[in-house]
Design brief:
The chain contains 7 helices and 5 strands. By secondary structure, the protein is α+β, with helices and mostly antiparallel strands. Strands 3-2-1-5-4 form a 5-stranded antiparallel β-sheet.
């Protein structure tokens, strides 16, 4: 058998987080990497790009070993002990690559969420948090889990306070990057749901927003306020 090729170094990120970096920074991935090389970025953004590059490299490793595993099982090689040994070794390497990618993803998210929160807070004309969104985020802040019924397959969210949140609302908040699910837990056993850094920032800002006092109803013209009667 020919020797196993080594994964080529990553030149550009190919990860599910690309669109979030681009949305939070307003720049494409190639531009961010170029700015990093030229020393244009500030410290938080430079740190984020460095972590993103590690994620890109880790994702490239996952893709490489997946393709190698597909090639080994394609029928191109003779089925013998040498092939089985090579497949076992590739599976182990794939598991290590996936673990490295998941770790890199968590690091990127930790650096990205404060930047997303700052971008959302400074965005002009940003839509205020609705009453339903505020109530849902407030309930999730105390702890929540997404469950799937084993028989019906229906998804439901239950918070620690007993509040139930519609799954559609959960998806809406997740698409807005205000909450995140711990997908390492199976849904049928309950996936923990928590606020992201952006979600905590938005919730805190909403709770600090002063409420407008209700206007006092003016007294009718021609009426007098009642005065207490003094007995002699």
């Amino acid at each position: 058998m020919p020797p196993e090729p080594t994964p080529a170094p990553a030149r550009r990120a190919v990860s599910p987080l690309d669109h979030r970096l681009e949305a939070a920074t307003g720049h494409g991935i190639d531009t961010l990497w170029n700015y990093r090389d030229r020393g244009v970025l500030d410290e938080p953004h430079a740190h984020l790009v460095d972590l993103h590059r590690k994620l890109a490299k880790a994702q490239t490793g996952v893709t490489f070993y997946l393709r190698l595993l597909n090639r080994l099982s394609s029928g191109e090689f003779d089925v013998d002990d040498a092939l089985f040994t090579r497949i076992d070794r590739t599976v182990d390497q794939l598991e290590e690559a996936v673990a490295a990618r998941d770790t890199a993803t968590r690091h990127v998210l930790a650096a990205l969420e404060p930047i997303e929160a700052a971008a959302a807070a400074s965005k002009p004309g940003a839509n205020p948090l609705s009453t339903d969104d505020h109530a849902a985020l407030l309930a999730i802040a105390g702890g929540a889990k997404l469950h799937e019924h084993l028989l019906t397959g229906r998804l439901s969210v239950t918070t620690a306070s007993g509040t139930r949140i519609p799954h559609a609302k959960l998806q809406q908040l997740e698409d807005a990057w205000l909450i995140i699910r711990d997908t390492t837990h199976p849904v049928h056993a309950g996936q923990p749901v928590a606020l992201t850094e952006a979600g905590r920032t938005v919730l805190f800002a909403a709770r600090r927003t002063p409420t407008t006092p209700e206007p006092k109803v003016p007294e009718r013209l021609g009426t007098w306020q009642a005065t207490p009667t003094h007995r002699r």
